[in-house]
Design goal:
This protein is an alpha/beta fold and 338 residues long. It contains seven helices and twelve strands. The strands form two sheets. It has a nine-stranded mixed β-sheet, with helices on one face. A three-stranded mixed β-sheet has the order 1-3-2, covered by helices on one side. Strand 9 and strand 10 form a beta hairpin. The N terminus is likely disordered.
């Protein structure tokens, strides 16, 4: 809906108030209060000059020139702020996340750096491990921190502790890890009264010698009348003046009867005899490893060696019923009585 333009030379007919509009949709003119309506010539002149007719020309304010040698002061634009709020500063920029080819290149670069650093990390880790291992070896095997300070002997009577400790010859101050356990055990085993021995390291500074004493099984009397204590393995390990209580006595007919095999044969006879026959045995004589005789009341039994003891006992028990003077079971397949 445009208003008809006024051109020079055209005249507008004033329409009385209250008269209907004719010839288009032109808006009725309303006179402005205090100022006459400009004519079409005045409007044309205003459009040409850019000023409104009747308006005073705007006086131009001369700018003050800046002194020579100084830059003109730049005008700072004023930021508009919403009503009732203070002007806000510049918004912080968000970090850009690389995507696409840039992201792939960054990942490839990181992986390449990891690959280049991997040998260095491996070298540092290996070096640190070797240093720690070396320190542990030195601490355990060479330093005086874990050296032998005490030697304990357990499992034997108090009278045997000092001789065993002296026989072991463990040097104090030697690193506990470097003590030769087999060598110490072999030294202690040389003592006749010890049946078994084992060595234990008790950290940080104690060597423990576990020794088992021999237990008397019988006493053998040699041709010179001396008494020797024999254990269940047939080992003569101590000389005594009086036989221990409850230990049977065996006579050795010769020095050959004191061998371990001969004493083992005497032990086999004593072991196999039941309690009902042991109190009837008055004498056991060992001549050799293959000849052991015993006296049961008035009967002499030729036992022989230590072979087939159970079978020999059964044959001897059956033949004792006839009360012979001699029973020979040295060859159990062909026993003999006289």
């Amino acid at each position: 809906m445009s208003r008809p333009s006024d051109t020079p030379g055209s005249e507008r007919t004033a329409r009385p108030a209250g008269a209907p509009r004719t010839g288009g949709m032109s808006r009725p003119s309303q006179p402005r209060s205090g100022s006459p309506r400009p004519s079409s010539q005045d409007r044309a002149g205003r459009s040409a000059s850019g000023t409104r007719p009747g308006a005073a020309p705007k006086a131009s304010t001369p700018r003050a020139s800046a002194p020579h040698g100084s830059a003109p002061k730049a005008s700072t634009p004023r930021a508009s702020a919403p009503n009732g709020s203070a002007p806000s500063g510049p918004r912080p920029s968000r970090p850009t996340v690389p995507t696409g080819l840039a992201s792939s290149a960054a990942r490839f670069q990181r992986r390449a750096q990891d690959v280049r650093r991997r040998p260095l990390r491996l070298l540092l880790w290996s070096g640190g491990t070797l240093v720690v291992l070396g320190l542990l070896i030195w601490l355990v095997a060479f330093s005086p921190v874990l050296a032998v300070r005490t030697v304990e002997v357990v499992g034997v009577p108090a009278s045997e502790v000092a001789p065993i400790r002296a026989l072991a010859r463990v040097p104090l101050g030697e690193p506990l890890a470097r003590v030769d356990q087999d060598l110490v055990a072999a030294r202690v085993a040389e003592r006749a009264t010890v049946a078994d021995v084992s060595i234990e390291r008790s950290w940080p500074s104690t060597l423990v010698i576990h020794a088992s004493p021999r237990v008397p099984f019988l006493v053998v009397k040699n041709p010179q009348g001396q008494l020797k204590v024999v254990d269940a393995e047939g080992v003569a390990y101590a000389q005594v003046t009086t036989a221990p209580a409850g230990v049977p006595t065996v006579n050795a007919a010769s020095e050959a009867a004191l061998s371990r095999d001969a004493l083992g044969a005497a032990v086999s006879v004593v072991k196999v005899l039941p309690a009902g026959l042991q109190h009837r045995v008055s004498n056991v004589t060992v001549s050799s490893a293959n000849l052991v005789t015993l006296k049961l009341g008035k009967t002499t039994v030729v036992w022989g060696g230590n072979n087939d003891p159970e079978r020999k006992l059964a044959i001897m028990t059956a033949l004792l019923r006839s009360a012979p003077k001699v029973i020979d079971v040295s060859a159990p397949d062909t026993p003999v009585t006289r």
